[in-house]
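Q: I'm teaching a short session on how sequence maps to structure, and I want students to see two examples side by side rather than one. Could you give me a first protein with its sequence written out and its structure tokens following it? Keep the formatting plain so it prints cleanly on a handout.
A: Of course. Example one:
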Amino acid sequence: MGKILSKERVIEYSIEFKIKVVELTNQLDVETAKIAEILNLHPVMIYRWRQEYREGKFTPQPTRRISMTKDSPKPLPSKKNVDELQKLKKENLLLKKENDFLKKWRGYLKDQKQKGSDS
């Protein structure tokens, strides 16, 4: 979150926090003022962070933390999983086509009903 720097309650927020707030405002379809109110921030601060983010002024600060664990390599998917994935993709494509057809059919029926009621 933030840390208080002096007696006048000047709060400094971490770059990671600022980036998360900016990404949150970009992802949600909510007014920035509402997000600022929820986070107890001034809306102008968020607008400024968004501008700085667009200008590329937010760069992650280097940390002194060192990972003590090795990243294990991800296992390759088995032939069975690959085949199942391909089967599911084909089925998904077929279902999308059927869904599109049904939407068109519903529109056609709606048009026919309107034409029948006009006469």
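Q: Perfect. Now a second example for contrast.
A: Example two:
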Amino acid sequence: MKHTIFLIFLFVASPVVAASGPFFSLTNTNFIVLLAFILFIGVLFYFNVPKLLGDMLDKRAETIRLELDEARKLREEAQSILASYERRQKEVQEQADRIVESARKEAEAEAIKAREALEATVARRLAAAEEQIASAQASAERVVRDKAIKVAIAAARNVIATQMTAASAGKLIDAAINEVDANLN
């Protein structure tokens, strides 16, 4: 029905009729063109060109659909890989933060140990220096005392030698013997 209405409108159309004389004449170029067009369309339908074109378009649509599905799968795979890498990067960052924090704590602990060791070393050196000072002071006192004793003995010897008589020497010897005897008992 639609085809017949189309053909009626095609033949009744005013520009077609107005072209050059009677329409159904082989001298009318419009009629010849119409016949060639109808023959061309008929050949196309005879060789199933619309069906072939439809099949080709269907194949192309299926190919495009498959490519879209594959692209969607690749996109999902890429997103999962990206998420995996982001997760891994986050884990690595957390591990790096833990390592840095651990290193900082170790450095602080080592600094405290080094400070304590330095304080202990300083304390030992101060104690050793004080000990050396005390030893040097005791040594100096001993040297001065020994020197004073030697000087006192020498002075006493001189005084005794100049003032000593035989009687006083005997008294001194007796007093020394009594003193030694008292100290020994």
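Q: What should students look for in example two?
A: Point them to this: Helices lie at 2-12, 14-17, 29-46, 49-163, 166-184. Also worth mentioning: Residues 49-163 form the longest helix (115 residues).
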